[in-house]
Amino acid sequence: DTGVSQNPRHKITKRGQNVTFRCDPISEHNRLYWYRQTLGQGPEFLTYFQNEAQLEKSRLLSDRFSAERPKGSFSTLEIQRTEQGDSAMYLCASSLRRDPTEAFFGQGTRLTVV
Amino acid sequence: RKEVEQDPGPFNVPEGATVAFNCTYSNSASQSFFWYRQDCRKEPKLLMSVYSSGNEDGRFTAQLNRASQYISLLIRDSKLSDSATYLCVVMDTGFQKLVFGTGTRLLVSP
After folding, report:
1. Most exposed: A95, B36, B45, B106, by fewest CB within 10 Å?
2. Nearest of A35, A76, A18, A21 to residue A52 by alpha carbon
3. B49 touching A, CB under 8 A?
4. Which residue of B has its CA nearest to A33?
């Protein structure tokens, strides 16, 4: 499969626990984006990487959220001390530099905080 | 005010109907515009880019009105398989990320 891969697809966690999601972008894509989507809303931008550099973070990304892309390949998104309001679909997308028109999304990780 | 605004719908239309969606954007300096399609519980996928001169792809026509800052999508001869959420998307002025509207839900019935 040469598309964007996200793991896990579903995650149920108790409030207060930490969770980590992984995104494997399309191999030659140097840009990687994280979005969050809640029911009835469009995807909301969280952060993006150009290779291993995190270039922009949304104000939505509180200090409980951290994202990394250590070698410019896969990325992880960690949420610490989860809250019920964190329940959402977390989408990862990748693209070639300066051509986000061709951003390809993974199938997302659906997080439920109980 | 949201950067990109859409009527969430749903739009209920019979097969064969023509349906149009509009969206407005707030940043007059925005340069690039798109429509994405999202099926239920699936990821968004690029449907088409929107150019100033308007563009057509089969049954789909997209238009941009920069003066009024709105974008439209017209679907002719609707098919059952067109049922989905259509997301209006604007590229931010720094050409760094895509900004999505809330989406318009379309339901095509037999």
Report:
1. B45
2. A76
3. yes
4. B97
Q: How far apart are CA B56 and CA A102, in angstroms?
A: 18
In tens, the pLDDT along A61-80 reads 889 999 999 988 999 999 99
* Span B22-57, pLDDT tens digits: 999 998 888 889 999 999 989 999 999 998 888 999
To the nearest whole Å, the CA of B36 is away from the closest chain A CA by 10
- B71: Cβ–Cβ under 8 A, 6 or more apart, which residues? B22, B23, B24, B25, B33, B35, B50, B62, B63, B64, B65, B88
SS3 call for A66: strand
